[in-house]
Design goal:
Transferase(Phosphotransferase), domain 1; six-stranded antiparallel beta sheet; 42% helix; binds adenosine-5'-triphosphate; binds magnesium ion; N2-citryl-N6-acetyl-N6-hydroxylysine synthase; IucA/IucC-like_C; LucA/IucC-like
Length: 592
């Protein structure tokens, strides 16, 4: 029987979600498809070869590319029709690979294995939800529950959840969507091989000792055991197992320069990025290098990236940063004021050992109603609702508004609280923040509307020419060589992809579909808002101009990045995987 609790039911949901992310990312990057009528149903028709098409009837059309499918998948060869499963259809698409030259057999099989792995993790996440809550409705109430509710993950990616290399017991411990939690492993490291760098204003030099002191007996034991001549270094236990055999590390262990001294009791929770850990008891979150491939990159941190965290902290303490914060009091940045790492025998920092330290604004008591944006926009597994829809329901009841008006009201607040500060950071201050759905945390007020923005992930921050001119006299670490001082066109492409295509288009689609409004009125609302910001007058209107006046926007090609097996983090030119898509904000202006 295929009941909502059966293995088959959950498996089908996971496969369908996997296919939706796969197809939607393909459609953004490949032009050979159309929407047409097939057997009286509206369907996406993808050209795979002359006279060969994949046919996917739609349950929801989307101007923004967030199509939803009915679950019927057909391969049409001439007049012959073949019904396929979701996985068979993806296999066929990869065999034809109409976007480029055919894939080598081995590459196709590897890719398919990655897709199956991703689907399996979605299945496990749904099963976990079913077992712990008795149903599949994601109803997070606080920060950590939101972080751990992303069962589907990146909605434009061919293998959004793939996490190869972890055994089942490791998946259960370290995966946010499986409600993972685990203890930190504490090392002591000889100061001669430890790097410790902080921002100018960071003065909490005893934070590790304080952390241990608040851990009760397990912390005290470590404090008693430690050699005061050594420095403390808490470690992600899996990462430590993964790297402790590396030549430099192993020799330090043999020479007694690194020693394992024990675990602390209180659990740490992996957040939605997997590599950043949260503990409501502690003042800081801990972001680690993790030698595992997630979406487009092996999740190693690099020195030039964690330097950006210190830099952002300095920028926010500068007059320019303070002015931005005072003009947009609803906005904040989760600063990363310190990092630690081990040096190799040449004195260079070993990327695999980096720990970046991030302020935690969501400690116990202040963690309620704070959600990563991706948790709000993610569809429930039955595609009948979402966390965002439940908020709009509440808003519509408490304010006696129709669902449609409540959705527009919510979006107006989203524009004020999330979009405006991030766009104005670029336009008036030259500060660029890579604010995609996973890097935006929103605090929701008791009536259900956005109240506060927390931007996280300083690795994805940069500066335009305006920012460089304003900040470089005081922030000496702003360095053209570090790779985050960008030409205007580059910065505008990245900011627009993250904040608009990735984040805001997902909000528009979710509100439009779930509240019966459609996407267009909300795209219009966004367009009007951008026009108003530009009319107000800004220092550098180039990003607003690009968003309003450019017929196309550049979109990050997650499909091609995965198929070609690029590691996004080590690409020489990050824009190499970006491709043009029609700009819906511009199109509405032309239609008038
Ligand atoms: N809509 C989305 N856009 C981008 N990434 C997403 C999205 N939804 C889920 N994710 C997941 O979130 C992670 C985003 O990676 P990113 O590099 O922004 O974060 P990070 O640097 O690893 O950590 P943190 O955000 O904690 O600083 C990836 O693992 C990706 O799969
Ligand atoms: Mg992130």
């Amino acid at each position: 029987m295929n009941s909502p609790t059966s293995h088959k039911y959950l498996n089908d949901l996971a496969s369908k979600a996997g296919l939706t992310c796969f197809i939607n990312s393909l459609l953004r990057e490949y032009r050979g498809w159309s929407v047409g009528i097939w057997q009286e149903k509206e369907a996406v028709l993808i050209d795979l070869a002359p006279d060969v098409q994949a046919v996917l009837p739609l349950s929801h059309h989307s101007q923004l590319g967030l199509f939803q499918y009915q679950g019927e998948y057909v391969l049409k060869k001439g007049k012959v029709l073949r019904a396929l499963s979701a996985l068979e259809l993806m296999d066929q698409i990869l065999r034809y690979a109409p976007w480029s030259k055919p894939l080598a057999e081995r590459d196709r099989e590897e890719l398919l294995a990655r897709i199956e792995n991703s689907n399996r993790i979605m299945f496990l996440a749904l099963r976990e939800q079913q077992e712990t809550c008795g149903n599949l409705e994601m109803k997070p109430e606080n920060f950590v529950q939101g972080e751990q509710s992303l069962w589907m993950g990146h909605n434009f990616h061919p293998a959004p959840k793939s996490r190869e290399g972890w055994e089942d017991h490791e998946l259960a411990l370290y995966s946010p969507e499986l409600n993972g939690k685990f203890a930190l492993l504490w090392l002591e490291v000889h100061p001669s091989i430890l790097v410790r760098k902080t921002s100018k204003s960071f003065s909490d030099h005893e934070w590790l000792v304080h952390m241990l002191a608040s851990e009760g007996a397990s912390g005290e034991t470590i404090l008693e055991k430690r050699d005061p001549n050594f420095s403390l270094l808490p470690f992600h236990p899996w990462q430590w197992q993964a790297i402790k055999k590396q030549v430099d590390i192993a020799s330090y262990v043999d020479d007694g320069l690194i020693r394992e001294i024990g675990e602390t009791d209180s659990p740490w929770f992996p957040t939605s990025s997997v590599r950043t850990l949260y503990n409501p008891k502690h003042k800081y979150m801990l972001k680690y290098s993790l030698n595992i491939m997630l979406t487009n990159s092996v999740r190693k941190l690099y020195e030039h990236e964690v330097d950006r965290g210190l830099q952002v902290d300095d920028v926010l303490q500068s007059d320019v940063g303070k002015k931005w914060l005072s003009e947009y009091p609803a906005a904040s940045v989760m600063g990363e004021p310190c990092y630690l790492a081990i040096k190799d025998h040449n004195g260079d920092l070993i990327p695999d050992t980096i720990l970046s330290v991030r302020y935690n604004p969501f400690s116990e008591g202040s963690d309620e109603r704070c959600f990563v944006l991706g948790a709000l926009t993610q569809a429930d597994s039955d595609e009948k609702g979402s966390l965002l829809k439940r908020m709009i329901d509440r808003l519509s009841k408490s304010r006696s508004l129709t669902l449609q008006s409540a959705a527009q009201e919510w979006f107006a607040h989203y524009l004020d609280v999330v979009v405006q500060p991030l766009l104005m950071a670029q336009a008036d201050f030259g500060i660029l923040m890579g604010a995609h759905q996973q890097n935006i945390v929103v605090k929701i007020d008791p009536t259900g509307i956005p109240e506060k923005l927390y931007f996280r992930d300083c690795q994805g921050t940069g500066y335009s020419k305006l920012g460089y001119d304003l900040l470089s006299p005081t922030i000496k670490s702003l360095d053209i060589e570090n790779g985050n001082i960008l030409q205007n066109n580059e910065g505008n492409i990245l900011l627009s992809y993250y904040l608009m295509i990735n984040a805001s288009f997902a909000v528009i689609n979710r509100l439009g579909v779930d509240c019966g409004l459609g996407e267009e009125p909300l795209i219009q609302q966004l367009r009007d808002y951008l026009l108003e910001l530009r009319e107000r007058g800004v220092q550098d209107s180039s990003c607003l101009d690009y968003l309003i006046d450019s017929a196309e926007l550049l979109n990050k090609g997650n499909f091609i990045c995965t198929v070609e097996q690029f590691n996004e983090n080590t690409l020489e030119n990050p824009l190499a995987i970006y491709q043009a898509i029609p700009n819906p904000i511009y199109q509405l202006g032309v239609q008038k």
